[in-house]
Amino acid sequence: MNDNIYELLNSSSFNEEEFGNIETDLTDLEIKQLKNNFRKNNKVFNKKKFMYIAASLAIFITVGTFTVKPAFAQSFIESIPVIDSLYEKLGYYKEFKDFSSYVGLSQEKDGYKFTIDKLMADDENVMVAMRIYKPGLNTEKSKDGKSINDFMITPYLPNSFELFMSAHNNSKIIDDNTLLVVTTFETDPSKKPPKRFDLSIEIHNTLVNDVSVKFILPVSREKIIKETISKENVGKISLSASEQIIIDRIKISPLGTSIKYTLPKGISDPNDFSFYLYDDKGRIYKDRSSRSMDEQTYISDYFPNIEKDFKKLYIVAYKTNLVDIQNDLSKANKYSEEISKKYDLKTFQNFKLNDFGNINVNNIERISNNIKFYIELNDPRNLLKQNFPIWLQNKNDEFDNSISFDDISFYKNQNSANNNDYIVEFKNINESKEYLYGVYAPYCNTLVQGEPLEVNLK
């Protein structure tokens, strides 16, 4: 097999007649829909007069569903392990391998080559994985080792634009010429995507305004639906007699975990409210982001991805004085000097966090691209668990944002008899870099915390 998948795709062609050579267990209706989708994409692309390489037409290959006989399709299928290995470096291997659809769609413009490799979708997110290639694209890097080329991916047709309200990128440099980008589009909480639809996106380099390309991508979320746990009308969390938070839904899919909730009416600022989750295996999950169109009904996403080897999940809601502090920084909590310092990975220390409790770092283990902090967490009021207690940074940088949220885990040490022993783990870090660590000290106070809401998922 030729490992250069760019060369492979450039030298390939695909046309509608080759649908006759599909060996499949799809129904006749599904095959007809697939053909219609192909014609629709072909028609739109021609109408827009985009320039494409030979492999420009969409190939929508759902793994395990059907195979294509022509030599090109066989070569493309053979290159799938190479594509998988690239996305494994971004931490998406299992999800992309088991739940994604393969898309052989590329465009070239002004020396750039944009290749859409994979798609995944559940009822709240669509994830698009692509490679961006240009000679010398990544030779100049930012201070934290990222490519200075920043690509914005946005919906551009009304039917796509209205469905989504936010998006975020995760990128990794593969070599001097190739950038790997995974974009997650997040839906408006009031909307739910259909099982199959066309996603219209535009990609442009924010540093080079005239470099812009458009794609129309066939999306199917049917496979992930079968592997998704979704609970509706979960329950209520009471913070006070007048403040009740309604948990409308919890969703656990291969793309991630989220809760949909409704805040009390008449609240002064939703930023005072926050949540964390924990399961009956002792793993703790922190909210990555929240979104809302009406500042009443929200969707919050959590990291790291939740495993499904547990029976119960617990939702903890709390209200803080965060907004008050943002308006007046002098109201933030004050700590001793040792809390603000950074420490090398050979330093073990006990950190006292005022009346919150203390974090005792007992051991730090670094093996290859993995760092584990073994800590004793004395948290009498369950306030320190609201945030990940350890943060990591490159020795030469203020903050290393190359560490993905999905590569950070916080969980009980199952091998310890001490119920307060936890592990904070950082995965897929740069093996060649030296790191320092610090402890997270809450800078705002928790005004009220509700009782954990138990959700039985079995």
From TrEMBL:
Q: Does the record bear Cell inner membrane in its keywords? A: no
Domain named DUF5643: residues: 243-331
Every copy of the DUF4179 domain together lies at 46-132
Q: Which Gene3D superfamilies match?
A: bacillus anthracis domain
Parts forming coiled coils: none
Alphabetized InterPro entries for the sequence: DUF4179, DUF5643
State one Pfam family annotation. DUF4179
This protein's UniProt keywords: Membrane, Transmembrane, Transmembrane helix
Give me the segments passing through the membrane.
Answer: 50-68
Q: What is this protein called?
A: DUF4179 domain-containing protein
